[in-house]
Amino acid sequence: MTGEDFRELMDAMADPLVACDGDERVLYLNPAAERMLGWKLEELKGQPFARLLPERMHSFDGQSFLRYLLGRRRALGGRPVRAFLLCHEGPELEAEVTVGTSKEGSEERITLVLRRLPEFPDYTDEPLERLLSSVAHPRGPYPGAAGTRAYQLVFENAPLGLFHFDTTPILVACNEYFVRIIGASKRRLIGLNLFSLQDESITHCVRDVLAGRHAYYEGDYHAVTSGKVTPVRTHFAPCFNEKGQVEGGVGIVEDVTEQRSVQAERDRLFREAQEAIRVRDDFLTIASHELKTPLTPLSLRLASLERRLERKEPVDPTLLRHARQHLVRLAALINDLLDASRIEAGRLALHFEPTRLEAIVERALTSMDSERGQHRIDYSHPAESVRIRGDPYRLEQVFANLLENALKYSPADSTVRVTLDVRGDFALLSVADEGIGIPRDQQEQLFERYFRARNVSVTSYGGLGLGLYISRDIVERHGGRIWVESEVGRGATFYVALPLLSAANPTPPDPRPTTGSPQQVH
Ligand code: ADP
Fold first, then answer.
1. Whose alpha carbon is nearest atom 20 of ligand 1?
2. Helical residues (DSSP H) of 228-372, grouped into ranges
3. Phi, psi at residue 72, to the nearest 5°?
4. Distance (Å) from CA 440 to ligand 1 centroid
5. Whose Cα sits closest to atom 16 in ligand 1?
6. Residue among 171, 228, 225, 222 nearest 195 (CA)
7. pLDDT digits (tens, 9 = 90+) for 454-489
8. 90: Cβ–Cβ under 8 A, 6 or more apart, which residues?
């Protein structure tokens, strides 16, 4: 047969075929191979065959893929092995490859016959499995596939993924559990060369096993064909024959998806517990600091009073006033702590009665007289009385807390604007300051127990982070809403909306009373 005849014959062949020279350079690609791989002969001619292989398949035990296969031809008995080939556009294609070699004159020729594996796995191809396991295992069929029933029963029903590979290392048997974990059909798995897998840590384990050592793999297994990702833990062990030589290996695979999610849940709970401990510790530090701060000056003032009285000297009323202020501060802190625990226990009692809101606001403003310092307070309210049904004492506590915060978190000579208004079925009170403001990402948490924004330090601004928590509870139990609008460095405006006494079935208003800027609703 002439070279021309031979070329025509190959062109006519239905099976994809690639021919290379002894240096593994592509000489020829028949049209079936062109169709399968998407390469044109002109593009590949003279190129190394390795261009058709994914990088991980460039070297097998220090040999090229082709030399490696040629070296195992006898063991394979001329039958195909599974391999991954690179198509023209880049995707990998799984194929069966049979390799042969011949001489043309003194020139070596390497020929590969390819067979594409079906796109969709066929789960019931038992005859092929048997064929491949006997093919891949030179000493005959694997007992799990064609051997004793007892072996087969144990192998197939073990509650772990099991697989066996020979020294090639080709996967020669696996059980159903393994198939389920990996998410590819047995047809695809049996005959697969483990060195062709993408995950280097798996190929390392296989190498260790072939060198007679145990190996462990834990990680996410990415199935090349199905794309399925499974977290697995695998113990690889070598199989020794009677002479003590390694004759392949076994792998025991555990699907650790559930353990992983249990672990993730445990980690989450641990983080939450740590966070709770941190909040508790922070709270204890702040609370002890806050409770102790008024005590020292109080005790000093009382001592000075005592001395004066003993010496029958006149007593300065400012001394007494200051001492009382510290006591009031202490009592307020303790009351906040008690209120917060009452709220937690659902025992904060409210006593509702028809009442005039402007009177409550005015009382709260008066109670701030001693703390106002150089601040200016602008107060505006409607001419008519704003009547609601509420607990006057608790509402005064809410407004006093907002005013106190406005004074505390803004510079001494700035203005605090208090506005009482009526919007539909609601009374709306706003307290606006020109102070430090509140970072946007923390505004939602302001109304949580013990929460203090990160732009306030314990030393410059005292507080337990309870006032707004208590205020929200009180306002919401009045059928109202409390929220804030703020920008760091540009002040904060707190809003409280409460249903009017005249309102039949009020729905709390959309909290967008004055500006179009985004706000938080609580
Ligand atoms: P406290 O002021 O005692 O810490 P609050 O519950 O009253 O507790 O307030 C919670 C947090 O909200 C404060 O620690 C502060 O970070 C922030 N905050 C409240 N009001 C203002 C305001 N007017 N300006 C800036 N930040 C404020």
1. 405
2. 257-310, 317-344, 357-367
3. -110, 15
4. 13
5. 453
6. 171
7. 888 766 677 889 999 999 999 999 999 999 999 999
8. none
